[in-house]
Amino acid sequence: MGRGQQLDRVKQEAKQRTKEGISRVREGFLQSLQIVVAGVGAYLFSERVLGHFEPIFAATAAVVSLGYITGATHARRILEVSLGVALGILLGDLILLTLGKGLGQAALAMLISILVARFLDDGILFTIQMGVQSWLVVLLPHTVDNPFSRSLDGIVGGVFAFLLMFFFPLNPHRRPRQDAQQLMEAFSQVFDDSARAIRSYQADQAWTALAQARQLHPLYDACEKSVITSRGMAQLSMTGRSSLKELEEYSQILGKVDYAIRNLRVLNRRLSSTISNVQLSEQASQAIAQVLEQLADAISVLGRALASSQAQERQRAQRQAQQDLTELAQVLEPRIMGVRSMEGEALVLILRSLLVDLLEASGLTHQQAVDCLAPLGEAMTEHAPPTQSIPVITPQMLEVSRADTASINLALRARERKPRQEVRLPLDPDE
Fold it and tell me: How confident is the model at residue 262 (pLDDT cuts 50, 70, 90)?
């Protein structure tokens, strides 16, 4: 790579990082104001009302409690920070009163605080707060307040964080909708790429689609964490109870989407291997490509249902996705699609399983989704005997000789050639 290309790459990365940074600042502006108000309010309350001198721990507890978090509820965050600060300061004060001030005493206070925190709870933030606060209490200069005033400041900070969450909540839907839209767009794109790979029968494109399918997991994790965080925000806020139902629906839909993503990775691995090692017929490859394209369109519609802020629009898009997927399920059968080989039929079977997951995500129950699928019939491939011609294994059949086994195989092959002819299998060697 030449110096000019390296310079262009650096410029592109800098431009992308700047764009992402501006986006984060814009999206987090209201939460930043909320954090500042909580911190200043906690500080002023401890200073003006409680009469504490420079109550920095009150502001610290409020700011950390309302920090930018994902994957955890604010209620747990506030409790971890408030109790961690209060208990850490309490243990630090006890060490300070009994052993005095010094680096050794601070190290002992931190060790005891961390061990107590691990005993009480497995929260990382709780452990960090207890350890850091006890260390600071022992090392910071003495205050004119009573020894345990700083523990009270930590509780004050947590209370102010809760009050800000209760009276001035953030929109709990914004982040889950954004993350869900990003996930479903990427999900749909993988199907489009897979369709192009099998339509042109290019193995390298199929492997690229597989790599993209594997990258869906971090996007799903982001969606799951944002829903958990938003649910915690809604539970704490004064007006957030009405949002819990929608967030619960988000959680259920995303659970089914997770199953579909897992099946998509299986499909892409099989698709890549098939294109690399087997030549499907033109009819089969084009039929599978068409199904993949239709799935991409249906997933885009389902993504609009998750991203919309209007209830009617969400319901309309969900019904449209459900209808499109139901129509596709009625033709997702090897014989209807013109698939005649085991390799192609294996792809169809994986698609059927994936389609059931998507139908459940659109609002159907599992049984309703399965009932939408076209029945497979008696046989899957031309290489396997029809299901009804395979005898039920009984204890008597286990006694047959190898010659009798050969006669059974011959009978099954005869049944294949003449599907309507009844085949009688000898169970008794003397018969």
Answer: very high
| pLDDT of the residue at 75 | 64
**Cα-based distances in Å from 349 to 39, 270, 295:** 57, 11, 15
In 3D space, the residue among 256, 361, 372 whose CA is nearest the CA of residue 319 turns out to be 361
How many whole angstroms separate alpha carbon 150 and alpha carbon 294? 62
Residue carrying structure tokens 């690399």: 276
Contacts for 365 with CB less than 8 Å, ≥ 6 apart: none
Tell me how crowded residue 215 is: count the other CB atoms within 10 A of its CB. 10
277 lies in some domain: yes
Give the three-class secondary structure for 281.
Answer: coil
The pLDDT of residue 198 is 93
Looking at 167, 194, 211, the residue that finishes a domain is 167
Q: Is residue 88 one of the residues assigned to a domain?
A: yes
pLDDT tens digits, 364-408: 999 999 988 888 865 455 554 444 444 444 445 444 444 454 555
DSSP character for 141? P
Residues 198, 153, single domain; the answer is no
Q: What is the mean pLDDT of residues 307-336?
A: 88
Cα-trace Rg, the chain:
32
- Output helix, strand, coil percentages for the chain, rounded to the nearest 5: 75, 0, 25
Co-location of 297 and 313 in the same domain: yes
pLDDT at 141 over 80: no
Tally of domains within the chain: 3
Same domain, 225 and 258: yes
Give how far the C-alpha of residue 240 lies from the chain's centroid of Cα atoms, to the nearest Å: 23
Residue pair 231/198 in contact (Cβ under 8 Å)? The answer is no
Q: Kindly tell me the burial class for residue 374, based on how many C-beta atoms sit within 10 Å of its own C-beta (0-12, 13-18, 19 or more).
A: middle
Domain match, 158 and 197 both: no
In-domain check, residue 6: no
Structure tokens at 1: 């790579």
Q: Domain range for residue 115? A: 22-167
Whether residues 337 and 197 fall in one domain: yes
* Residue 144 and residue 274 in one domain: no
Same domain? For 221 and 346 the reply is yes
- Domain for residue 240, yes or no? yes
Is pTM beyond 0.70? Reply is no
Structure tokens at 74: 């604010």
Closest CA to 284 of 350, 342, 204, 353: 342
Do residues 317 and 298 make contact, with C-beta atoms less than 8 angstroms apart? no
Q: Is residue 300 domain-shared with residue 412, that is, in the same domain?
A: no
Burial class (CB in 10 A: 0-12, 13-18, 19+), 342: middle
Domain boundary at 117, 141, 167, which? 167
